Amino acid sequence: MIPIFSTVESVLATHRRRTHRVEFLNNIEAEIDSQRQRGSLEEEDVVLWKHKGDKFRPRFSSKDTWYLTRELQPIKEWYKGIWFTHSTPKYSFMAWLAIQNRLSTGDRMVGWNMGAPTACTFCPEPMETRNHIFFECPYSAKVWRSLTHKLLDSMFTVQWDCILGFLVDNAQDALRLFLLRAHLTKTVDLLGEAVWLCRWPASPLRVVVGCPRSVDLAGALFIEEWAKFWDPGGS
Ligand SMILES: [Zn+2]
């Protein structure tokens, strides 16, 4: 056994070869023998960092180390739809979580805790899913419609997969594409915040609204704020 804080020098000088059941330990034994035969005992230890292609260099590269410590996945087509020029990182981050279905919706919470409530925060739907809260739920659909009905016109939809498709459809006018991406990321963040406010027992919204499921006032406030931002002249 080689103590964890051993130097290469001390291992080459004192280690006695053994046979192991695990193959990679035998490979280490072979490497120690190889270093001894190369006369490495006379050399000082140096610190080297592993880079791409199993090359070792004295210089540390955070980029190469990042790639070595993660499992590479294929690039997702939707990433440009949420990480775009002039996007707001907070909104994009929430949309990124939603796309990967990592938010605490009812269907996911019941997986962590069998006793967790599964109903939609906004309506009587018994199972709150990602696709329901974004944007099939009547409340969420109302918020989404108020922001995008002019932009999408006859293509308006509350189907999550269709909406994601719009975000990467480069055949669209650049401004329209930007507005759709901005609306989607902001709305996901806004609805996520509304869910949190309605679930939070001490939420001021609960006091104002009086009923945790009656979120019309909150929705109206959000819609009003958004409408002013995107359409200052009103129409
Ligand atoms: Zn609902």
How is this structure best summarized?
The protein is 55% helix and 2% strand. With 235 residues, it is mainly alpha-helical.
In words, what does this structure look like?
The structure is a single chain. The protein is mainly alpha-helical. It folds into two domains: 8-69, no CATH class; 79-230, no CATH class. It has twelve helices and two strands. It has helices at 8-14, 23-37, 62-69, 79-82, 89-99, 106-112, 130-136, 138-152, 160-167, 174-199, 204-209, 216-230, and strands spanning 49-50, 56-57. A two-stranded antiparallel sheet has the order 1-2. Helix 7 (130-136) crosses helix 8 (138-152) and helix 8 (138-152) packs antiparallel against helix 10 (174-199). Mean pLDDT is 83; it is low at 207-215.
Helix and strand arrangement:
Layout: H1 8-14, H2 23-37, E1 49-50, E2 56-57, H3 62-69, H4 79-82, H5 89-99, H6 106-112, H7 130-136, H8 138-152, H9 160-167, H10 174-199, H11 204-209, H12 216-230
Helix pairs in contact: 5-10, 7-8, 8-10, 8-12
Care to count the β-strands? 2
The first-to-last residue Cα distance is 77 Å
What is the count of distinct domains? 2
What's the arrangement of strands in the largest beta sheet?
1-2
Sheet with the most strands? Answer: 2 strands, antiparallel
Low-confidence stretches: 207-215
Q: Write down the Rg.
A: 28 Å
Order of helices and strands: HHEEHHHHHHHHHH
Ligand set: zinc ion
